[in-house]
Structure formats: structure tokens, C-alpha cells
Amino acid sequence: MGTTLSRILTSRRRAGRWHWTDVAAYTYLCIGVILMFGPVAWLALSSFKTQAGLLEFPPTLLPLAQKEVVVDGYPQPLPLFAATLEDGTTRHLAQVRRIGIVAQMVDPSDPSQQFRVPIERRIPVREFSLATSNYTEPLQRFAFMRFLGNSVFVTVVATLITLLINSMAAYALSIYEFRGKNTAMVLVIGTLMIPITIILVPVYLVVTEFGLVNSLWAVILPGAATPTGVFLLRQYMLTLPPDLIEAARMDKASEWQIYWRIVMPLTLPALAVLAIFSIMWRWNEFLWPLAVLTKTEVYTLQIGLNAFQGELQTQWHFLLAMTMVTLIPVAIVFVFLQRFITTGIANTGMK
Amino acid sequence: MPGVEPLPKTTARPSIVAWLGIPFVLAMRIVDYPMRALQRALGEQRMAYVFLLPNLIFFSLFVFAPIVINVIFSVTGGPALFPSERPFVGAGQYAYLFDCGSYLDPSTCREDHFWRGVANTFRFTASQVVAMVLLSLLTAVVLNMKIRGRGFFRAVYFFPVLLSPVVVALIWKWILQRDGLLNAGIIGLGGERILFLVEPGWAMFWAVFVSIWAHMGFYTLILLAGLQAIPSDIYEAAEMDATPRWRVFLRLTLPLLWPNLIVVIVLALIRGVQTFDEVFVLTGGGPGTATLMIVQYIYETAFSNQVQNFGLAAAASVVLGVVLCLLTGLQLALSRRKAA
Question: Are residues B172 and B166 in contact, defined by beta-carbon separation less than 8 angstroms?
């Protein structure tokens, strides 16, 4: 990291010449790193603080907790303080009890030495400590695992359905010549312009007619046929050599076999891009699940998190940890598949 | 598609993935029998309809039918959800929605929340699009320079695009809250605490800021793709003539980037008008109605208010739909003119 940074800092456009725009560019980029990464890093650090640590103002950078020591003769570990004694020296002492404004303290290495220190003359000794209970407790106390399970179910099933029906439609629109092909294309383009935001009420009606309100299928089905997906896959399938399909037909392969055994494997790169997109869409979806899911047991992670932020106003330590958990799959996808996503967006101009 | 590696041809032992795939492969084999029968009945080319059918069923159920039903909802009244139980009211919902003393002053309107939503969405979109286009253009130009660690910096600007709106909003809520990091910084520098999400002006500012933070990477990527498509020999010619950089940018880069800029502007407009989730989680539309957007108005009118008013929500959606149609038309017109 250090060498990369110094190389970044010492590099220039052409050897020996620093243009002022280079300096400006690096300055801009460094501010960018702080502004873009900073908030997420702050969330990550904060999510490991104790509830008391979070209430502290001004906040500390790292999650800290008061150090405790086990002292001979005392059953409980005692909190450690840096106390300034009457002779002006500072010593690390463990507090046995507090009486009013005076703390009764002992030397941890020699418990027989006792001190009485006014409380304003002692400062807690703190150490780096991760409050992992922020992560473990919500798992038991709230329906968090359930939300997680619901989100995973919605994401996986919806992505599978999307891949199947979109690739079938793309196959039809790229391999065949048939009557109504143009109409079908226009209809697909048309749906690109109709976001769920403007048909919220009638889609709710359709879902109600099917008796799917408060079922995860109500979240999965309406968005399964994506125009973006059909386009992406069709664009890719058009590049496949037609001879390949002709040859397969010669060998008496059925159309379904051609689709499933020949075209699908060759379309894998485009399918991968669509799969990643679909996973992101579904994992992050908010407005529609918010409208159609009203019972806690069917909440997805996003809806659950939103409900929590209303209920848990005072419990930021749980909220921040759960936000981190929601963020982690996305972070993993990003680290490993960034290239897929960026080429996908650059190729289609959609997300 | 570049950057995609071919799959390995052989695998020594069937992995877990392969075992999970077996029911899948089996299902596809089984589907082949009815498909063959269909193919015998329809012929090769007409199999296209079969392949198209599932997608079209989904489209018609969840897109085409809803468009029609939306209009029906908007011309009927009453609390019932099923259209057959809803009395016809003609343009009544629209008349109610548009009943205003002055369109510039939401408080003179009968449905003042809708008009506050319109005004807020307009303010939000206008400032967001301008800032978004300028910032993503600047970032794309910088990332297109010959700099070290370009991949890293590009990733830094891009990653918030993938975060969910709820996560984005909570990240910033934590920073902006009363005892948050930002206020600690301000007080540390000798300033006074600001209640960012309680003061209307600040709440709107942060709504715009957070949505730019979250989506800038996407637009930067489109502009960067455009910049990289500009052939480099054009620049070499300009350098030969010792043309100043700003002039090269204004005379060469900007015109060549124009198609991508149009895409960015129109997409940002279309998304801006539909803004909901980040702002909803960040401010809840508040304080008061200071950051209430049209989509939030629609959502609350239909689903979360005490009295669910589907007709009014549908009428508002139709209005929003018309706006989106106009914006899409604008995009088509602009890209046509460029092609001609």
C-alpha cells in the first residue's frame, strides 16, 4: 500500500514535467477517496462500538472500551483508570468502588496498596475492543435471520426465473424470423419506459387478484421479465454464428435442445452479467416490497432495516451492525465481479 | 464482451455445483418432450412464439394490464380495490388533484401534499441533475487522464452505485445526526451544531448530496466509456498544434462526448423525477413536507395513509407517467437530431 501510494504520488504525465492539472487531478481523487470510502469506513468502525461508546461526543475514531483487570482478592474484573495522586504522580489503578465523588482504588500489581482518589482526577484507560455482540444479539432478539432468509430466497428465485424467461425471449427475438417480431420488440422497448413507480396501484391489484399479498412471490414475479435482460441477451445472441444453429438442425436437434444445449452455454458471459444485475436489483429493491409486504415475517432485509430504523432510534449499535450485514454481500459481489458490472453498464447504459 | 474468461472445458470430479445442477438439467430434458411435440405441430420458425410466451405473459400481467388498469383507477372513486366495485367519477380525481388557487403556492391547493411533492421533486431534480452532470463529467475526465492507480480510483467512485438505498441513507443518517461525525467536526473547528435533518433547507441539501453520492459512479462510467471511445490521434493532432488544454476540451472533447452527455442528462432527469427510497429513509419526507417527493406522495396515498385512496394515487401516477413520457420523447428527439 505504502509503495503504491508513493508511486501514485510521484507519477506524472510525462517524465520530468508536472502540469498543474496533474496536481489538481490527484488532489481531487484523494478528496474523492475520503468522501466515498469515509462514510462506509465510519459505519464499519461505529458498528463495533458499544452502546455507551456510540453515545460519546465527540466520537472516538476506533471502537474503544474501558480496560478491565483481574485483581487478586476481587471476584469481578475491575475497571482500570489512570489516576493522578496527591503527590502529582500518575498511576494505573483499578477502581474497587465509588463513594460519592471519591473512588476507592487499588494497585493491580499489589492489591494491598489502597488509594482514595477524587473522581475528577482519574481518567479511564481504554483499549481497542470490538463489540461483536452488536452482531450476535440481533440474530437472536429480532427476526433478523428471517429477513436475511427472505432476501436470499427472493434474490435467488427471482434471478433464476429472470434468466430463464429472458433468455427464452432473447432467443426468440434473435434466432427466428416470424410475424409480429417487430411488434414484440416494440413492446419490449415500451416496457423499458414503464417503471414500477407509475403502476404501483394496479400491480398491487393484480397481485391481490392472485392472492399473493404478503407473500414473497408478490415481490418475485412482477419484476421477473426485465426488458434490460432481454436486450442484453439478444445483443449477445445476435453475434453467434447462424451456421451453428443450422448445423444443429441438420443433426435433428429440437429447437429447445438448440436453445438449451447450444445457445445458452455460448451466452454464458451475458447471462453472468444479467445474473449480477438481477442479484443487485433484487437484493436492493425497496419501494415495491415496501408496498406489498406488510407482515413482519415476510419482510426482506431492506424493509426490515427500514422498519428497525423507526423502532430502534435509540439502538444505533444494532442498527449499524445490521446495516453492515446488509452491505456485505454487495461488497463481496463488488470485489470479485466489478469488471463484469462495469462492462455490463458501459455496454448497455442501464443498471 | 471483453474481460470474460471462457469456462474450463473439463472438470476432474463433479463439484457441488454440478450436483445441484442435476435436477436442473433433468428438468430441461423433461421439458424437451412437450417442446418436441409443439415443434411438430407448429413447425420450426413458429417455435419463436413458444419461447416468447413466458416473458410476454409476465409483461402483460405486470406491465401492460396495469397501465390500462391505472387509467381505470384514476377515473373511478371510492375505497374499493377491485375496479368493478368502484363508481365512475370521470375526471373527478384529476380535478381534485389540480384544484389550486395558484400552482406556484402549494398551500392554496386542496391536495397540498401533491403540489409540495411536485415542487420538491422539481427543486430536487433540477439541482441534482446539474450537480450530477458537472461532477460526473469532472470525475470522468480526471479518471481518463494518464494517472497511476486508475482502476482503484474508478472503483472508489463506482462502488456506492451497488449499495442499497436503505444502506446509503442509514450510512449518511448516522453521519448527519445530532451527535454525528459531521457535527463533531464542526464543533471541533469551533462552529455550532447544526441539526442537518431537522432544518428544511439542510434536509433538502443533504437529500440531493446523498443521492449524488450514491449514483454519481454510474453516470461517470457512461461518460468514461464515451471518453475512451474518442480516438487518441485527434488529441495528438491538437497537441502538435500546441492547442491549450481547455480549448481541446471545449472544442474536441465536449462535442464528441455529446451523445453520452445527452444519455446522462436524460437518465438523471428520469431517475430524479422518480426519486424515492434514499430520501424516504433519510428524512421520511420531512421535516414536515420539506423533502416529500411525488413518488412518496403516491406511495403514501395508496398504501400507508389511514384511508387508502387508490384513485387519487393512480391519477397522480398518470401525471407522473406523462412527465416521464415527455422526458423519454425528449431523449429520442435529441438522439435523432444527433443521428441526422
Answer: no
ipTM over 0.90: no
Sequence letter at residue B76: T
Q: Where are the domains of chain A?
A: 2-46, 64-128, 135-348
Quick check: bond before B287 cis, omega within 30? Answer: yes
For domain A135-348, give the fold: MetI-like fold (1.10.3720)
| Residues of chain B contacting residue A338, judged by C-beta atoms under 8 Å apart | 155, 158
For cell 464528441, what's the residue?
Answer: B256
Which of B24, B53, B62, B310 is the best substitution to test chain A (most A C-beta atoms within 10 A)?
Answer: B62
Class of domain B93-164+202-339: mainly alpha
pLDDT at B45 over 70: yes
Cβ-defined contact of B70 to A316 (cutoff 8 Å): no
- What are the grid coordinates assigned to A159, written together? 434471478
Q: Average model confidence (pLDDT) for chain A?
A: 83
Question: pLDDT tens digit string along A94-115?
Answer: 888 887 788 888 887 777 778 8
Looking at per-residue pLDDT, the higher value among B183 and A333 belongs to: B183
Share of chain A above pLDDT 70, in %: 92
Which CATH class, in words, describes the domain spanning A64-128? mainly beta
- Sketch the domain layout of chain B as residue ranges: 14-49, 93-164+202-339
Is any Cβ of chain B less than 8 angstroms from the Cβ of A102? Answer: no
**Is residue B4 within 8 Å of A341, Cβ to Cβ?**
no
* Whether A208 and B81 lie within 8 Å, measured CB to CB: yes
Q: How far away is chain A from the Cα of B225, in angstroms, using its nearest Cα?
A: 6
Residue found under cell 470485489 = A335
* Contact across the interface for B181 and A168, Cβ inside 8 Å: no
